[in-house]
Amino acid sequence: MKKILFLLAIVFSIAFAEAQQIWDDFTTGPLKQITTLQAEKIKIEQPGENILGGTRYITYNVTENPYQQLFQLAIQKGALISSTGFGTASSMSITYGGNRERALNMDLSQYKTIKIAFKGESNFARVYLNMWSNGANRAFWRGNKENHVPFHGSINAMGVNSEKVISIPLEQLTTKDATTESPSAFNIADVDSALIQFYGFPATGVNYAIDKIWVE
Q: What is the CATH number of the domain that holds 189?
């Protein structure tokens, strides 16, 4: 009986692993803490073994900093941590893949949901998703196809500091219409790049830690 249960556990774990595709667990591609007292744009390229496409590309924008508060960004202990000081807003985008030699050629047709897990967050921010296939063909998500500005795709309600998982159903993706210059439609079975954006605007002093990004 124990042997049967053990074998069933193995089968279940294999099936569960196949049902998920990890995009990033932030255990590789470490980033020493970056701090700044000024408004600026920071671009970072990080290769790693547990990263979709082998590299994550981070772009971080920090607004004016009237109170000279520290902005901090780091990857440590399996989490991407962002902390923006009082009076300062920020936005971050993470890109996986790209065109030509960076293309992922990823088939997501067998998956239903993209998930983003947070270890903790304060205040609120918004999550946007863009994906491309075969050039300029794009699909995007802005939060349940409803106008909840500024809370659509929200990481959390204001004033809450707790773990949270954002779920993005692939069926809610909006496909950009094809044009004469770009006649081919977006193809969920051939995704070349994915861009996830984390907007703190217009809130200031937003802090959060991203734990994992995956599809299932």
A: 2.60.120
pTM of the model: 0.82
The C-alpha atoms of residue 9 and residue 97 are separated, in whole angstroms, by: 34
Count up the domains in the chain and report the number.
1
Token pair belonging to 11: 């089968």
171 in a domain, yes or no? yes
Summarize the confidence of residues 1-15 as an average pLDDT.
Answer: 48
Please name the amino acid found at residue 88. Answer: T
Better-scored residue on pLDDT, 193 or 3:
193
Residue 135: inside a domain, yes or no? yes
Quickly list DSSP for 160-200: --S-EEEEEEGGGPEEPPP-SSS-SPP-TTSB-EEEEEEE-
State the chain's mean pLDDT as an integer. 82
Q: How far is CA 108 from the centre of its chain?
A: 16
Integer Cα distance of 71 and 86 in angstroms: 9
Asked if the structure places residue 132 within a domain, the reply is yes
Q: Which domain holds residue 55?
A: 19-215
SS3 4: helix
Residue 54 has which token pair? 């082998």
CA distance 99 to 132: 9
Please report the pLDDT score of residue 145 as a whole number.
53
| Residue 72 is assigned to a structural domain of this protein | yes
